[in-house]
Amino acid sequence: MSVTLKEKGRWDPLKVFLKVSAAFVLSRFYRNANGPKIALIGGNLGEKYEDNASVFHKYLVNNHTEQVTAYWMYDPATDYAKNGRVPNAVPLGSFRNYLLFFRADYTFHGHSLLYDIVPSADKFLNLNRRTIITHVSHGIEGFKKILIQKEDVPLLKRTDYFNCASRYEYELKRDKWGIPEEKLVITGFPRFDRYLPNQPPKEMKRILMMMTWREWLFDLSKEEFLESNYFRSTIGLLEHKGIRELLKSNGIQLQIALHPFMKRFEEHFSPLADQDYGIEFLDFNQTSIERSIEENDVLLTDITSVSWDFLYLNKPIIFFMFDQQEYTERRGSYLDLDKDLYGYKSSTIEDVYQTLSYMLEHNITHNEWYGKADEFIDYFDQDNCKRLAQRVMGV
Questions:
Q1: Distance in angstroms (rounded) separating the CA atoms of residues 334 and 348
Q2: Hey, what's the signal peptide range on this chain (predicted)?
Q3: DSSP assignments along 76-143, one per residue
Q4: Which residues touch 42 (CB under 8 Å, ≥6 apart)?
Q5: How crowded is residue 371: how many other Cβ atoms within 10 Å of its Cβ?
């Protein structure tokens, strides 16, 4: 679950030991019986206030302040929380972070307890037996087979609940992940509460391009990355003359959201921005994924979890599966990438061009696979946060 999410050695072992020891001792003097319960919430490695975890945090802050004090854990290297927009924000790795962890009644994490809630948790998890730990997920599982690292094993065993978007995901986590049924709860995904379902656009004017990451690319040198199929396929789309002419002649804006792990290669992408053809790169210091999902009419992607949001909204999706064979061999998918996709499948850049031409010619502004949505998503009522809070916390 935590494949190279954070660089090794970031947290100084001695400092962590001293903070944990002091926090554990001091926490014994606190009693929470008469006050609000304490919930620690985190996601996206503390680097962004996005996704399921942040939506659930907002829900608790806005609806249950008398019953629960909900804290958000953030990466101290970032400044999004310090500007005051995130209530009850606590820096990861701080003494207060460790103290709150030992006092917490609940934690909710999107990726890993280790990176979202409390650094080095796998080293001292046995000291905390009281906190109810819930994994709220990053996206609906299916595209990526789980990778379990050594440090993940105690965390998975210690986790009390794993929320699921649907019966489909419940069965996947039970049968493929080996999670006991009593730990699985079907509450729906908090982030879907942000939208009304079935909101297809009236016309195609904005395309969001999001390509996810492959862990085998992480340690490549600059030269190796520039020769990779991933890089060449991505820039090939932006350089394709036919695609550029389609964008220009139809007044379509193509917004590209680079994966955070591509930050060190950003200089090789940014020259491809071109206002004349409506090609621009998004800066998530200025906007958000949530806003991008709402504002864009079509998604062009490989296997990003944002595709589930577009399906929920009944917006068209083009799946660019340029490395399907390699991906299947190296990582694998629970979905059949030939049969289970809920959008147009394109294996080559030319296929993407032909698909866009077809969509524009036939004025397609809805997802022709929208009928598959309820195979993967059980709830469309914007009460996912409410169900999660009730099921885990009884509020």
A1: 23
A2: none
A3: TT--TIIIIISTTEEETTSHHHHHHHHH-SEEEESS-HHHHT-TTHHHHGGG--S-EEEE--SS-SSS
A4: 53, 72, 73, 74, 92, 107, 108, 109, 110, 116, 117
A5: 10
Sign of CA dihedral 146, 149, 153, 154: negative
Q: What confidence tens digit (pLDDT) does each residue in 136-186 have?
A: 988 899 999 988 877 788 889 999 999 999 999 999 999 999 999 999 999
What phi and psi values does residue 16 have, to the nearest 5 degrees? -60, -45
Q: Do 283 and 233 belong together in one domain?
A: yes
- Token pair, residue 168, equals 């489909």
Q: Which domain holds residue 304?
A: 206-375
- 261 and 226 in one domain? yes
pLDDT tens sequence across 309-349: 999 999 999 999 999 999 999 999 999 999 999 999 999 99
Amino acid at 217: L
Q: Give the SS3 label for residue 288.
A: coil
Give CA separation, 394 vs 54, 67, 177, 199, in Å.
20, 10, 27, 32
Give 177-215 as a DSSP string. S---GGGEEE---GGGGGS-S----SS--EEEEE----G
Helix (H) and strand (E) counts in the chain? 16, 13
* Claim to verify: residue 162 and residue 244 sit in the same structural domain: no
